[in-house]
Amino acid sequence: MSTCRVCDGDVVEFLDLGRQPLSDHFQSEPGLPGEFLYRLAVGVCEACTMVQLMEEVPREKMFHEDYPYYSSGSSVMQKHFEGTARRFLQTELTGQDPFIVEIGSNDGVLLRTIHEAGVRHLGFEPSGKVADVARASGLRVRGDFFEEANAIEVHRSEGFADVIYGANTICHIPYLKSVFRGVDALLAPDGVFVFEDPYLGDILEKRSFDQIYDEHFFFFTARSVQAAAARFGFELIDVERLPVHGGEVRYTIARGGARRPSEALARLIAEEDARGLSDLHRLRRFVAEINDIRDNLVGLLRRLKDEGKTVVAYGATAKSATVTNFCGIGPDLVAWVCDTTPAKQGRLTPGMHIPIRPPDAFAAEPADYALLFAWNHAEEIMAKEQEFRRAGGQWILYVPEVHVAGA
Question: Which residues form the C-methyltransferase domain (predicted)?
Fold first, then answer.
């Protein structure tokens, strides 16, 4: 039992994925000192229904100078963020001298479109090298974490923000109270706080347990976000289901009474209540389901090894650290992982130390099977790697269950 990071209620643990490394810590060789480990366990608050990690990893260990994720690396995500930016430009950023603040602006994939439209903007991005990429495009970026003190400082120098936005960021922040107080200080009276993050409903339905890793501290539902917003004088007014990253929800929050809640919000909350997303019985069934996935995936990989088949993996994603370490998948079962990120190439996956190789290795050394860790980009990847299938290669997926694509 621990204390909820939102409402101070009691949090009941329902899942323990064991000792895990930092999901984005890629060592250059095995056995080097400094591989930080923590217990990856999840619980649900009995009071506000917020699902959250039981143990917090210090933020400086995750988001730092060498943070290796770049949002612009996926054409699908580029299109998604460009569309989101255009929507803001057509709706919320239409007044005189509009201003948008992005929490976790990464390499500026969203703010570039805002900047090109001549709209005032500011990104918060503590990961140094990705922030530098954004600045090189002419974007205004602070190398800070977004919290109450920094938000007050921005308000004093810039005035109110019409939009405060975060994508795949707010769920990363254990100190959600400070974030909401910062939003309270910075958001215009009629402004909106919009964020999109992995949705607990999709994680349970798809059994995508690899969405659980160090960076994802909270697993939101409309019901839990509604309760969190209300604690700070805000109101959840709209929700939108999104297909990206394996299933997300975009939440729109305004000051209490400033805007009318949508019918989409009422529908989603009714659906969540009917599905019992925060019910311990449902959550424990999820645990049994992912134990089956682990057993089936390891069983398949061992059988293929015994048959003399070659197996590699595709995408040294943050979430793949959860899969490999929970399942005990190392280079004995998966020879190497292909990844497009130069900073990861030539290094080893966290914990299990599978070698990471560049994309040309995937074509130069054809394997019999490829375990698709980046399953949320399956359509994009399979379209790009059609030669692999033509040469007889087959894809292994484990969401929502272990299967060989096309088999």
Answer: 243-400
3-state secondary structure of 154: helix
| Other beta carbons less than 10 A from residue 379's beta carbon | 9
DSSP 351-402: TT--BEE-HHHHHHS--SEEEES-GGGHHHHHHHTHHHHHTT-EEEE-SSS-
Give the chain's domains with CATH numbers: 61-278 (3.40.50.150), 282-404 (3.40.50.720)
For residues 179-206, b (16+ Cβ closer than 10 Å) or e, as one string? bbbbbbbbbbeebbbbbbbbbbbbbbeb
Lookup: tokens for 286: 């999820």
> Is the Cα dihedral 70, 75, 77, 81 positive or negative?
positive
Q: Which residues contact 237 (CB under 8 A, 6 or more apart)?
A: 192, 252, 253, 254, 259, 260, 261, 262, 265
- Burial pattern 1-31, b for ≥16 Cβ within 10 A else e, equals ebebbbbeeebeebbebeebbbbbbbbeeee
pLDDT in tens, the chain (407 residues): 699 999 999 999 999 999 999 998 898 887 777 789 999 999 999 999 999 999 999 877 776 566 656 677 778 889 999 999 999 999 999 999 999 999 999 999 999 999 999 999 999 999 888 899 999 999 999 999 999 999 999 999 999 999 999 999 999 999 999 999 999 999 999 999 999 999 999 999 999 999 999 999 999 999 999 999 999 999 999 999 999 988 999 999 999 999 999 999 999 999 999 999 999 999 999 999 999 999 999 999 999 999 999 999 999 999 999 999 999 999 999 999 999 989 899 999 999 999 999 999 999 988 999 999 999 989 989 999 999 999 999 999 999 999 999 65
Enumerate the β-bridge partners of residue 192.
Answer: 163
Q: CA 335 to CA 367: how far, in whole Å? A: 10
- Give yes or no for a contact between 140 and 114, defined as CB atoms under 8 angstroms apart: no
Report the Cα–Cα distance between both ends of the chain, in Å, rounded.
44
Q: Which residues pair with 196 in a beta bridge?
A: 167, 250
Spatial neighbors of 136 by CB under 8 A, at least 6 apart, are none
Between helix 176-186 and helix 148-158 the angle, nearest 10°, is: 10
For residue 30, the Cα-to-chain-centroid distance in whole angstroms is 27
How far is it, in rounded angstroms, from Cα 171 to Cα 215?
8
